[in-house]
Each structure stands twice: as structure tokens, then as C-alpha cells.
Amino acid sequence: MKLYSAKRSFRHDEVPALGVLIANLGTPDEPTPSALRRYLHAFLSDPRVIELPRWRWWPILYGMVLRTRPKKSAEAYQEVWGEDGSPLLSIGKRQAEGIQQRLEARNAVGPFAVELGMRYGNPSIASALRRLREAGARRIVALPLYPQYSASTTGSTFDAVAQELMRWRWVPEFRLIGQYHDDKGYIEALANSIREHWAREGQGERLLFSFHGMPKRYLFDGDPYHCQCQKTARLVAQRLGLAPGSWDVAFQSRFGNEEWLKPYTDETVVQLARDEGVKRLDVICPGFAADCLETLEEIAGENREYFEANGGERLAYIPALNDRHDHLDALARLILQHAQGWPEAAASRDWEEERWQLAETAERARRMGAQA
């Protein structure tokens, strides 16, 4: 049995490509309890996500969570599932295609190969990396679509990449984009999306930035996520010229009984409506690069109901950046910035000289017995 894998076919005259891995959290294969059970098992078994000793967590996971949560989660996914499947996956495919087009059109020579991989579910990060290898990628930039770094997201993505590359015979050169929470292009795209929403729908009395939550102890253990969320919101508010007191930051999607980052989004929307008399509230989720269950069902559905049940008149959800042109422009620029120094990202390349050298290499290899 071979311990290490390699590209199926190799040619000495092949022009190396710059591989780009676009990664996101993942999605079940279908909105059914059995598919959700598989997905939740993979997600909640990750020690980066649940930082508890296995002896404490396994009885909870297997004895309660995987017995009760899949049915409820499947019903929620059915509400957002489209003709082309999970919104996170369909948007992710468009994002990968758009980034590929931009890399090929920009002032860089390539060639480029862009693949989408999911940390949990399909297409997996391992399969995406293998497709990049077959496309001739000997240098890879990984872009986890988490603007704000967390060990539970970006850190876990790196784990999955490392686990796959540990099995490769020829390990590629590799760079990881760890965060882009204050990238100018990303901030401008968020500000643009808010301005456009206000131009279409009118401006609410308050703007709420809702980020995915995490246990509070992760912050005190050294995770920068909370600080980076605050900075993103502050920079967008500054870009929009918002006055203090006209915008808020909250954290959604808490799980379990321990304390998570506060304030909680569901409690915040209730407080704004019931205690502060806010009638029209705009909500944006800057930590989500693509719309998914947590934005479409939790914010645009569940939290809207909380707001309206407590005296609010309209909670308007501002969509994620998804495949907006300015969003994909910013991501393509970010990738090229991190690929600086690699020949594929250069502004010019002597193709004639390079192909001649590769042809000579191939000829020398054939004289030594190589097949290609």
C-alpha cells in the first residue's frame, strides 16, 4: 500500500499553475435528518469547534445532540433550500467561478486553478486540493471565507488542509490568508451593499452588525475573533459616516448552556423594539461571505419575528456580499497580494523562454528514461 499520493499524470513540460482554494464551512448534502446527522457529526466532532474534553462531550453529542437536533435542523434547511440546493454551496460555486475569471483578467500571468472546498460536507477540502493538484498547481493560496479569524473556522480549515497535504508525496508551496477583517476592498463592499439597500428600501432607525457567536472563554484563551468583529463594524460605520448610537454589534447562533460573546442578537433585537422603541431595524452579517441558514432563516426569519412580536415594524436583512462584483474584486486582489513573489502572480512572464526551458527539460528526462 502506498503511503503517499501523487498526481495521476505528470509531464516534465507542464507549466505549473497557481492553485487557489476557496473554503467555507459546509452544508449537508440534502435537507433531511439523515444528511443533517452526518453533517452535524462531522462539524460537532471537530475539537476546534467544541473545545471540551472528549469524555465530557461525547455523551452529550451522541446521547442528546445527534438524537434531537438533526430533525429540527433539517426542517430549518428546508426553508432555505433552493432548486440548485443549499444557498451556501450554490453561492460558493459562483464565487469560485467569479474569482477564476478575475484572476485570469487581471494584470497577472497565471495559469490559475480555483476550486471550492467545504470544511464539513461536500465538496470536501481534500477533494478540492486533489483537483488543484491534477490541474498542475504546485503553489496554492488558501482563502477561507471568514473575514474575521477564529480558531473554530480559519484554524480548523488549516487543520483540514494540513491533514490532506500530510498524505502527499510532493507537497506544494502553500500560503494561508488568515483574515481580512480590515481589508479596504472588503470594507468598501460592505459599505456599498448597505448604501444600495438604503437607496432601495429606505434607511432604518438603527443598523445592527450581527456576527456569529462563540464561547466567551475562547476570547480569554487568546482568540482574536471578537476584536476583529468590532473593528470591522467600526470601519464600516466610519465609511458610512454613522453617528455614535446609530449602530450596534451583537452575536448570534449560540449553542449550549455556557456564556457566549455578548450581547446576543436575539436579545438585542427584542430590546431595541420593546425597550428603545425602534420601529425599523436594518441587520447585516459581515462575518458571512455567503448567505446560509444562519442569515436567511435565523436573521431574516426567526429574529424578524422576535423584533415584530415586541413592537418593531420592520426588520430588514441586508444580504451577505455573496457574488457581488465588488466583493469578488476584493477577494481576487487579496489572493494576488498573498501570492506576490510567485511567478504566476507576476505582471509579466517570458512564456517563450519558459516553454523552451520546459521542452528541454522534458527532452533530457526522456533521454534518461522518463515517459513524459
UniProtKB/TrEMBL annotation:
InterPro entries: Ferrochelatase (IPR001015), Ferrochelatase_AS (IPR019772), Ferrochelatase_C (IPR033644), Ferrochelatase_N (IPR033659)
Keyword entries, A-Z: Cytoplasm, Heme biosynthesis, Iron, Lyase, Metal-binding, Porphyrin biosynthesis
Alphabetical list of Pfam families matching this protein: Ferrochelatase
Location in the cell: Cytoplasm
Record EC number: 4.98.1.1
Top-level taxon of origin: Bacteria
Known catalytic reactions: Fe-coproporphyrin III + 2 H(+) = coproporphyrin III + Fe(2+); heme b + 2 H(+) = protoporphyrin IX + Fe(2+)
Function description: Catalyzes the ferrous insertion into protoporphyrin IX.
Entry similarity comment: Belongs to the ferrochelatase family.
Protein name (record): Ferrochelatase
Native source species: Halorhodospira neutriphila
